[in-house]
Amino acid sequence: MTSALEVLTVGRVSVDLYAEQLGEPMRNVTSFKKSIGGTATNVAVAAARLGRRTALVTKVGDDQFGNYVQHALEHTFDVDPTWVTVDPDLKTPLAFAELDPPEEPNIIFYREPRAPDLNIEPDDVDADVVANVPIFWFPASRFSDEKAADTMRQLLAIRGRRSHTVLDLDWRPMFWDSPEQASEAISPMLDHVTIAIGNKDECEIAVGTRDLNEAADRLLERGLEMAVMKLGADGVMIATADGTRVSVPPYWVDVVCGLGSGDAFGGAFCHGLLEGWDPETIIKWGNAAGAIVAGRLMCADDMPTIADIEALLAERDGDN
Predict the structure, then answer these.
(1) Structural domain harbouring 214
(2) How far apart are CA 33 and CA 74, in angstroms?
(3) Counting C-beta atoms within 10 Å of the first and last residue's C-beta, which end of the chain has fewer, N or C?
(4) Within 13 Å and on the Cβ side, how many CA atoms surround 165?
(5) Is residue 320 scored above 60 in pLDDT?
(6) Is the pLDDT of residue 229 over 80?
(7) pLDDT (tens digit per residue) in 131-186
(8) What domain count does the chain have?
(9) Looking at the predicted structure, is the pLDDT value of residue 318 above 70?
């Protein structure tokens, strides 16, 4: 599988436990549904669900949950686990999703004393694959930890800013001491990527402005080929180095769980890049994928297929 790899993601993994009692605080929850999760993990799964050949670089604990992650990636989600290595001393992280309210779930992370994925080493992945895979995707949260950041810097040096090197701006305050620390760590990484994806908060961290047109300008001035701006209820805008700037509206759904929509967007975005589609088509597919997952309970398990996305696009285009 690795010889024909199309998407390689690097980053966090966890065993996710979703409360099945929607809208209830954790004290009232009596049952959970188990899956795998983490931004890099979900993007790899989402792209694989659309038929792309994907692999994940991460690290798990030497425990039953780590074994589950490796097995599920390969046998349930068709993601190559070759570079999912095992830390002999740390436990595989857990993440509990309290769906109260479902639109804005609370995630309770168990990553103490340290998550194994923060101990990824450059030698844990094949350098030739890093240098040559068509899409190399990683979240900005990798830079919240110095060891993880140093590994990413070495991998980016191997990559050499080849297209498509994608930075998911992924602002998660719980991983940082302050917004200023995040800005100081994330901003220099823009000089090593070709695409950045983020919302208003994430753009403010990366380039110092919440104005999305100004943020897109600042990202492109750093030498990026594309800047993808998530507008929430206003949809998505994409700006490219050749002057293209287009927005598409969201697809409205009844939200079951607010988790995973951005990762579904990421998987569909990768699919569109690999298909060579125009920017507007790529983000239309990304929006549709995100909407579908928002209307479902799980992240990895509920990532859409091509047929799912085509059906939603046909339905909404027909409405127009």
Answers:
(1) 2-319
(2) 20
(3) C
(4) 23
(5) no
(6) yes
(7) 999 999 999 999 999 999 999 999 999 999 999 999 999 989 999 999 999 999 99
(8) 1
(9) no
Prior bond of 250 cis (ω within 30°): no
- Please give the backbone phi and psi of residue 7, each rounded to the nearest 5 degrees, phi first: -135, 130
What pLDDT, on a 0 to 100 scale, did the predictor assign at position 46?
98
The Cα-based distances of 18 to 7, 29, 35 in angstroms read 27, 10, 8
Pairing mode of beta strands 106-110, 54-61: unpaired
pLDDT tens, residue by residue, 83-107: 999 999 999 999 999 999 988 899 9
CATH classification of the domain holding 239: 3.40.1190.20
Per-residue H/E/C for the chain: CHHHCCEEEECCCEEEEEECCCCCCHHHCCCEEEEEECHHHHHHHHHHHCCCCEEEEEEEECCHHHHHHHHHHHHCCCEECCCEEEECCCCCCEEEEECCCCCCCEEEEECCCCCHHHHCCHHHCCHHHHHHCCEEEEEHHHHHCHHHHHHHHHHHHHHCCCCCEEEECCCCHHHCCCHHHHHHHHHHHHHHCCEEEECHHHHHHHHCCCCHHHHHHHHHHCCCCEEEEECHHHCEEEEECCCCEEEECCCCCCCCCCCCHHHHHHHHHHHHHHHCCCHHHHHHHHHHHHHHHHCCCCCCCCCCCHHHHHHHHHHHHHHC
pLDDT band at 319 (very low <50, low <70, confident <90, very high): low
pLDDT at 232: 75
Q: Are strands 106-110 and 84-87 parallel, antiparallel or unpaired?
A: unpaired
